[in-house]
Design goal:
Layout lengths: L29 E8 L9 H17 L4 E3 L26 E2 L8 H10 L2 E9 L5 E8 L5 E6 L19 H4 L8 E4 L2 E7 L6 H9 L4 E6 L15 H16 L2 E6 L2 E3 L2 E3 L4 E3 L5 E4 L6 E8 L3 H5 L5 H4 L7 H4 L14
Parallel strand pairs: 1-2, 2-4, 3-4, 8-9, 9-10
Antiparallel strand pairs: 1-15, 4-5, 5-6, 7-8, 10-13, 11-12, 13-14
Helix pairs in contact: 1-2, 4-5
The protein binds 4-methylsulfanyl-2-ureido-butyric acid.
């Protein structure tokens, strides 16, 4: 990857040996992207009908000369973790998972994307041949090749039936967690992925940025009602943009956040899909809660304005001081101090 600016790499062991010079403001890695938001998918909506909807958005994107289309988390089915069924036979759990990708219903999407020369990112429930279940997202290049697969690391919600809730959030029952944040060379830059709850954790963006990510693709299904603390409901949209804007700015990345929004099987879900620049600003936003594109012209070279100045990791990060982040999971506050009160 060539860099148009003149900030030299730090040399040797002295991080101050090479002070960054002023940036060249010529930007030259343009990419037209779209957050391809979906409205609700009913529990009994056929895969073929959902794929028709994805193809409709893909066609609109092609007409608008978009090069990368990002679909939401679990984009082929309803958000089934909202239901607990004992024995799980009534829910026909397996019907919500894909055992191959592309499979019989999704091949049409791959074929059309390749014909159009439009890449895409797609979230789905994955059932592996040896019986493992993941909340997964794949990245497909403009030539139809699968560039990468990401499995959700942060699984929210609970494992057991909690009847006091209006609806369940059983991701911890129906999926195993992924264990890595990979990045890939794609679309003229370095791309990483995350899924829904991952976007609330700063570690997600930092791990991806340490892998060089310049563009982070995030699908989500976010019920607006949060049963453990309903006082957060009114803040759902604020928190959604807050975390992704911070992640973009603090890591010098573009972020594309894409919802499955609207009222799905009685559960109101957040829309507000967007494209965020490394400035931290939202540069494209959906207007409604249904199927809709939010299109933006981005330039991946803008990442360097942040990655090579204020957030030049090599120069300014202090990993030796951050050991608590990987050494422990929960907080270890100081023991109560009774003497100094
Ligand atoms: N899909 C997903 O990860 N949703 C979560 C809901 C959290 S409440 C259990 C989210 O973080 O948006």
């Amino acid at each position: 990857m060539t860099s148009p600016h003149n900030a030299p790499e730090p040399q040797g062991t002295d991080p101050d040996a090479a002070a960054p010079g002023p940036l060249d403001t010529q930007l030259s890695r343009p990419l037209r992207v779209a957050a391809a938001q979906l409205g609700p998918i009913g529990r009994h909506e056929a895969r073929a009908s959902v794929v028709d909807r994805l193809l409709g958005l893909l066609s609109q994107a092609h007409d608008a000369k978009v090069e990368l289309v990002v679909f939401p988390e679990l984009a082929l089915t309803t958000f089934f973790p909202r239901w607990f069924v004992e024995g799980e036979e009534d829910l026909d759990l397996d019907s919500f998972y894909e055992t191959e990708m592309p499979g019989p219903e999704t091949k049409r999407l791959f074929d059309k994307a390749k014909e159009y020369g439009v890449g895409f990112c797609l979230g789905y429930a994955e059932l592996t041949p040896d019986g493992h279940r993941y909340n997964t997202q794949i990245l497909v290049e403009r030539d139809g090749s699968v560039v990468g697969k990401y499995r959700k690391v942060h699984l929210p919600g609970h494992r057991e039936h909690e009847p006091w809730r209006e609806f369940q959030h059983l991701e911890r029952r129906y999926f195993e967690p992924g264990d890595t944040f990979p990045t890939w060379n794609a679309f003229g830059g370095v791309v990483g992925m995350a899924i829904c709850n991952d976007r609330r954790w700063p570690e997600t963006y930092r791990c991806l940025a340490l892998g060089g990510a310049e563009l982070i693709l995030i699908g989500y299904n976010t019920p607006i009602h949060y049963a453990p603390d309903p006082s957060q409901d009114a803040l759902a949209g604020h928190h959604n943009h807050l975390v992704m804007q911070a992640g973009a700015y603090q890591n010098g990345c573009f972020v594309i956040g894409v919802a499955k929004g609207g009222n799905e099987e009685g559960v109101n879900s957040l829309a507000d899909s967007c494209v965020i620049a490394p400035t931290g600003r939202v540069v494209a936003l959906t207007a409604h809660t249904g199927d809709e594109l939010a299109i933006a012209d981005i330039d991946l070279d803008l990442c360097a304005n942040y990655k090579e100045t204020l957030f030049q990791f090599e120069r300014y990060r202090r990993p030796e001081v951050y050991t608590a982040i990987t050494a422990q999971r929960g907080p270890t506050p100081p023991s109560p101090n009774t003497e100094d009160r």
